[in-house]
Specification:
- Strand 1 and strand 2 form a beta hairpin.
- Helix content is 34%, strand content 30%.
- It has a 6-stranded mixed β-sheet with strand order 6-7-8-3-9-10, with helices on both faces. A 4-stranded antiparallel β-sheet has the order 2-1-4-5, with helices on one face.
Amino acid sequence: MENTSIIQTKELVKKFPIGKSFFTALNGINLSFDKGEFAGLIGPSGSGKTTLLNIIGSLDTPTSGDVTVLGHSVGKLSAKQAARLRKEQFGFIFQSYNLLAVHNVYENVEFPLLLLKYNANERKKMIMDALSWVGLTDKIKSKPPQLSGGECQRVAIARAMVKRPSLVLADEPTANLDAVNSHNILQTMLKLNEELKTTFLFATHDEKVINYLKRKIYLLDGKVDKDVIK
């Protein structure tokens, strides 16, 4: 049988120095995620969910144990290799939209493609596809200050999805949105997950997000407390 796992953590431990001691943020995490999952790391502040998301996204490295993402051992990557993996394979969505205020919607979504050196015609098709997915083709010339919070987050999703990444990592993506916008955003992400088979992994304690997840991993004090599949 074909192994469809794209993320595996084995006895993952992450410690942060505090004075002369250490804080153990993750303590022996063993998890596996298959291609196309719509899953979330759930827990209160300090449970380790963002730390785990950051390590899976190659933004941080394990203290011990191993994390393999898309065939790459995160702890063994050089900074340059990790940056290349993020650039080519990952999409990131955060609670702060991180849009460039001086650039319009089209230019914000275009940015990841410029890094990947697509030509202008390829970029235009990919950008318009991504903006169509999130329902913003009529806003291509607007700049972030002219958009609502929900629209800004949809631009952030389009930017994360424009290169059709293998994996999208979302850290509290609805934290700054009201209920209506939150549901619109989540329905958009679920649709992209189902149509493009992109794997989505969230870090959240927002009930609105949790209700949409097909798999829920509850973290408590740096350990997996429950792993529930819908």
